[in-house]
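Possible regression after last week's pipeline update?

I re-ran a chain I had predicted before the update to compare outputs. Posting the input and the new output here so someone can diff against the archived version. Not blocking, just want to make sure nothing changed silently.
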Amino acid sequence: MRKHIVVWLDRSGRSFSVKDGHRAALSLAAASGGLVTAVLAAEEREAVPGNLAPDLARFGARRVALLRFERAALDSPEAVAAGFAWALDQPVLADTPVTDIFATANAVGRDLMARVASHRNLPLLQDCVAVDVDAATGEKYILQGRTCGVYALPGPVHCWTLRPHEFPCLEGQAPEAAPMDIAELAPPVAKAGIRLSAKAREDLAEREADPMARMWEDQPDIMEASVIISGGRSLESAENFRLLHEAAAPLHAAVGASRSAVDMGYAPPSVQVGQTGVVVSPELYIACGISGSIFHTTGIKGARKVVAVNKDRTAPIFLRADYGIVDDLFAVLPLLREELVKKGA
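New output (post-update):
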């Protein structure tokens, strides 16, 4: 049976861009030798970048399906998941039976795939570090990342989320084909009349008016960022996390936080790094004022290089660090930003 792999391309904020996680998923799908269809969501009147189809084709996509939603529906994870589940039965996807569905294993992708799998009653394996679509098996880390477990999914259709930075982005994985058209679909739930409550609208207005909230919302996806700067409770306040954002900006880095900093209300739960938060695999991880408990270091096990900044030279984080700075983070961070700006990083 010929493989038909559908790859979900999630959005970052209000606009769409092709990310490394998308390219890696398309590359893995194309390596199967089957048909690859990319699916993404957009607002009703949102313009689609002219180079979208060629960019996706370079990494193996042979079709693109664009799901059009009202703004309110696009902001609803359940509405988007229901629309995606509906689209799987439409001719652009169903004329060749779908065998596998890929998404990036970030917060959005994991949530969406769980909902889609529930809608369609499909098996799902999250956070995969290897997938064999022919054998319907996937691997994921277990036992705090010390080893991998191999899981076989039953049935003819399987759902997978792929852990960022674990799969290569390879161009030219599919044979040359005719230029792609973007097939536009309007799921029934796209005009489901979803509305925010008055309290939700007030909370949204407050967040949009809060400069710190905008910093958190506008930063790169922490699961896919190649550089992450994280802070602990030593930062002493939510406002002081601005120092991390300012240092992160020249590096196009994401800002994370330890569990204790999140518990103190200094940072949102979505950026909590560690065993009980998100597990990350950046090229560079900078830990500022983080002691380095086993719960935190488990979450950065996949980091290529770790730099620790802590005035306590006995902090456990130095045992995981490739480079350490024993100094006050409030002195180090402004100097770091100054040097990065000077060098045009």
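Follow-up from reviewer: compared with the archived run. The chain has a mean pLDDT of 87. Marking as no regression found.
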